[in-house]
Write a structure and sequence with these properties.
Layout (H helix, E strand, L loop, with lengths): L3 E2 L16 H16 L3 H17 L7 E2 L4 E3 L4 E9 L9 E8 L6 E3 L4 E9 L11 H4 L2 E7 L5 E8 L6 E3 L6 E2 L4 E5 L3 E7 L4 E2 L6 E2 L5 E4 L2
Antiparallel strand pairs: 1-2, 3-16, 4-5, 4-15, 5-13, 6-12, 7-8, 7-11, 8-9, 9-13, 10-12, 14-16
């Protein structure tokens, strides 16, 4: 059995860019070109830097995913800021394991499915825009919750949360979709957070402060 697999077909370019970034990149390139044609050197250089930074932010590298039985992969790039048992929450009934991943503006922001299964529901909640690394961001910030059921009947909820400057959450999932582990499903623009709610018997493999990559890193294992 292969240890790894491609959840999505590999891209055909050396530097893949998420489609959501095209309008920002084209706008930046257009303004930069106007400055250059007008002979405004300093604004043109600044525009080139900004456009390059936007391209970097919306990079969308291909990722291979582990085929280990029961492995739940990280849905986002970033740093683990919470990984513990909690008594209650608004997304699941009773106790559960909550893992929170903070994505800085330097991280890849394309989100991936943590485990294969069926999408039971997708719920968007309007809200505020506190810094995503604050705990109150989980409750009060604008967010998008995805509810997934695995083939073995486990329920997983993963939540895209907007941050201080992240004002757009993009999710391509709909109720009834069948998805694979590590598959791309959305993006949060310009700094954000992603929370994952898992069964109480989930075997955690990460700790606070760990750096993780979407699809590549294993958060732990379902029993």
């Amino acid at each position: 059995m292969k240890k790894f697999s491609w959840p999505d077909p590999p891209g055909q370019t050396a530097f893949p860019i998420a489609r959501a970034g095209y309008p920002f990149i084209f706008a930046g390139a257009f303004v930069t070109a106007v400055f250059a044609l007008l002979g405004l050197v300093i604004p043109a250089v600044i525009g080139l830097f900004v456009t390059s930074s936007i391209c970097c932010f919306f990079r969308d590298p291909d990722r291979v995913v582990s085929n280990k039985t029961g492995a739940v992969v990280s849905p986002a790039d970033g740093k683990i800021i919470k990984a513990e048992l909690i008594e209650e929450n608004r997304f699941t009934e009773g106790k559960c394991i909550k893992i929170s991943i903070f994505m800085s503006i330097l991280n890849v922001h394309v989100n991936r499915i943590p485990y294969a299964g069926k999408i039971m529901d997708v719920c968007y909640y309007p809200g505020k825009f506190f810094r995503a690394n604050l705990e109150k961001a989980s409750k009060e910030n604008e967010h998008n919750a995805i509810f997934l059921e695995t083939e073995n009947g486990h329920s997983i909820c993963f939540v895209q949360i907007a941050g201080l400057i992240a004002r757009r959450i993009i999710c391509g999932l709909q109720q009834g979709d069948t998805v694979g582990r590590g598959q791309r499903f959305g993006i949060i623009c310009f700094g954000s957070r992603l929370d994952v709610y898992l069964p109480v018997d989930f075997d955690i493999s990460v700790s606070i402060g760990d750096k993780v990559k979407a699809g590549n890193s294993i958060l732990g294992f379902l029993s």
